[in-house]
């Protein structure tokens, strides 16, 4: 996956609820929000547990960073692709071992080779001085 020089790359919209997530990504760590009381992970991050409605029991915990490709779409022409990304590329929905699903990109699997179920692990791409994104690469099953 490559970027097109000269075209601005969209950055995540960071707010009070997801700031800890993106701060961790900038430090090459993947964290997930979890409720201590319910023992349940939540994504996207939020100020209140949707299970028990507590605002005091949410914490950030390290993710395994491991999962599999749950779904994907391949962009093969410029018509529908994001202009800053060279086609072809894949947008994938990764289901982490914790059960959380994240939208991302792949770094080492060409679109023609993407399949549902491929085991992956997180990697971090320092795209700009102020932009690091989490992406995924193939891992041994
Ligand atoms: Zn809860």
Detailed description of the structure:
By secondary structure, the chain is mainly beta. Helices cover 6% and strands 38% of the residues. It is built from 1 helix and 8 strands; from the N terminus they run H-E-E-E-E-E-E-E-E. The chain has one helix at 19-26, and strands at residues 31-35, 40-42, 58-62, 66-75, 89-96, 101-104, 119-128, 131-138. The strands form 2 sheets. A 5-stranded antiparallel sheet has the order 6-5-4-7-8, covered by helices on one side. A 3-stranded antiparallel sheet has the order 2-1-3, with helices on one face. The longest helix has 8 residues, at 19-26. It is globular. The chain starts with 18 loop residues before the first helix and ends with a strand. The mean pLDDT is 95. The site of zinc ion has 8 residues, from loops.
Which helices and strands, and how do they pair?
Elements lengths: L18 H8 L4 E5 L4 E3 L15 E5 L3 E10 L13 E8 L4 E4 L14 E10 L2 E8 L3
Antiparallel strand pairs: 1-2, 1-3, 4-5, 4-7, 5-6, 7-8
The structure holds zinc ion (ZN).
